[in-house]
């Protein structure tokens, strides 16, 4: 099929560019244990791709009004940073190759993440890719987080990109919903959450890793065959 050229790319961060979601799951569980709560992985997965304010709502609904929300999420940040600072944070397969291709082709790129500015800056720096983006939009830079389209619209505007030429890359359901609502074609590269009927319907493409996105962009920009 014929694809529109890719003129800009907006990335999600956690679980898409960097392999941080598995560390986040571990820290969510260990933070709960420290305050005497058993946090199931099933519950923790519901917070993947969700802004912090919404995560607090989910935890309160699941564990009741007596749940120590602020202490729990403070400990989560402490446990997560400990794992990250111990050298366990890596980029996802194909991430560096994709960034290199975009650099060579002069295609502008941004991040639209549900993480805070402090966490985004810290993780990107430790992953060695902090200086590779033209813009980084965090939860603190928008009024409404994902699944609202505002993060993607803000990132595209920061790049001066037209929406039809902008490609979004996501791993989570909420992120995919946000990109789709913004009017962007979005490639889903699943991480910890398996694709559903909804995500398969909304995704422009579904690929196992970012290496396939390299091929897709080459094809869309007239260089080779589009992978199916």
Protein model, in words:
This protein is α/β, with parallel strands linked by helices and 228 residues long. The chain has helices at residues 21-34, 41-45, 52-63, 69-88, 95-105, 117-126, 150-159, 173-181, 197-202, 211-220; strands at residues 8-11, 109-112, 135-137, 166-170, 185-188, 205-206.
Features:
single chain, 6-stranded parallel beta sheet, globular, alpha/beta, 228 residues
In N-to-C order, the SSE pattern is: EHHHHHEHEHEHEHEH
Quote the distance from N terminus to C terminus: 9 Å
List unreliable stretches of 5+ residues. Answer: 224-228
Strand content: 5-15%
Strand order in the largest sheet: 3-2-1-4-5-6
Give the C-alpha Rg: 17 Å
Total beta strands:
6
SS-derived structural category: alpha/beta
Using the alpha-carbon principal axes, give the shape: globular
Write the layout of secondary structure elements.
Layout: E1 8-11, H1 21-34, H2 41-45, H3 52-63, H4 69-88, H5 95-105, E2 109-112, H6 117-126, E3 135-137, H7 150-159, E4 166-170, H8 173-181, E5 185-188, H9 197-202, E6 205-206, H10 211-220
Parallel strand pairs: 1-2, 1-4, 2-3, 4-5, 5-6
Helix pairs in contact: 1-4
């Amino acid at each position: 099929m014929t694809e529109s050229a890719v003129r800009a790319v907006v990335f999600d961060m956690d679980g898409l560019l960097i392999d941080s979601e598995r560390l986040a799951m571990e820290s969510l569980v260990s933070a709960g244990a420290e305050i005497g709560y058993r946090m199931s992985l099933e519950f923790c997965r519901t917070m993947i791709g969700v802004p912090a304010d919404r995560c607090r709502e989910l935890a309160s609904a699941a564990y009741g009004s007596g749940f120590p929300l602020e202490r729990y999420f403070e400990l989560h940040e402490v446990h997560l940073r400990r794992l990250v600072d111990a050298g366990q944070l890596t980029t996802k397969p194909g991430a560096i190759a994709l960034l290199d291709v975009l650099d060579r082709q002069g295609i502008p790129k941004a991040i639209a993440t549900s993480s805070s500015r402090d966490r985004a800056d810290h993780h990107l720096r430790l992953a060695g890719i902090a200086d590779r983006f033209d813009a980084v939009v965090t939860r603190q830079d928008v009024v409404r987080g994902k699944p609202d389209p505002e993060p993607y619209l803000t990132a595209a505007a920061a790049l001066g990109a037209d929406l039809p030429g902008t490609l979004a890359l996501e791993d989570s359901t909420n992120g995919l919903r946000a990109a789709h609502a913004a009017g962007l074609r979005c490639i889903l590269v699943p991480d910890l959450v398996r694709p559903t009927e909804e995500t398969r319907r909304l995704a422009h493409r579904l690929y196992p890793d970012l290496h396939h996105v390299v091929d897709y962009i080459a094809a869309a920009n007239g260089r080779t065959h589009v992978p199916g």
